[in-house]
Amino acid sequence: MSEQFPAKAFYSPAEVANILDVSDSHITNMINSGSIEAVRLSPRIIRISYGTLMRLIGQPMPVTRGTLTAEEVSVVRRELLGEDVEVPDDRLVPR
């Protein structure tokens, strides 16, 4: 198995084969048999999700968790709304 690979949302069957150090046809056969979940975008384009790849490798998907400061909440809110929005102090959850 390849030790390092780029983390991205979806991989081609060839990329997964390279990561797992198996043949492309092995991955294709596993997709066709239903052993690997895949998304068919067109008759010729198939993609495998990051989560599916992590299950194949046998590792859980990494999850990061943290607490946002009031300023970070304000920034995220402005970014989501696409405008400057004042966040009232009484609406923020104290740390």
Q: State the CATH topology.
A: Arc Repressor Mutant, subunit A
How would you describe the shape? elongated
Category from helices, strands and their pairing: mainly alpha
Radius of gyration using CA atoms only: 20 Å
**Percentage of helical residues?**
40-55%
Helix tally?
Answer: 4
Q: Would you list the SSEs in sequence order as H and E?
A: EHHEEHH
Give the tally of structural domains: 1
DSSP summary, beta strand count: 3
The biggest sheet amounts to: 3 strands, antiparallel
The rounded distance between the terminal residues' Cα atoms is 42 Å
What percent strand? 5-15%
Strand order of the largest sheet: 1-3-2
CATH A-level architecture: Orthogonal Bundle
Low-confidence residue ranges: none
- Mean pLDDT level: 78
CATH class category label: Mainly Alpha
Structural notes for this entry:
This protein is mainly alpha-helical. The protein has a single domain (1-85), classed as Arc Repressor Mutant, subunit A. The protein contains four helices and three strands; from the N terminus they run E-H-H-E-E-H-H. The protein has a three-stranded antiparallel β-sheet with strand order 1-3-2. A hairpin with a 5-residue loop joins strand 2 and strand 3 (46-49). Helix 1 (13-20) packs across helix 2.
What is the secondary structure topology, with strand pairs?
Layout: E1 10-11, H1 13-20, H2 24-33, E2 39-40, E3 46-49, H3 50-57, H4 70-81
Antiparallel strand pairs: 1-3, 2-3
Helix pairs in contact: 1-2
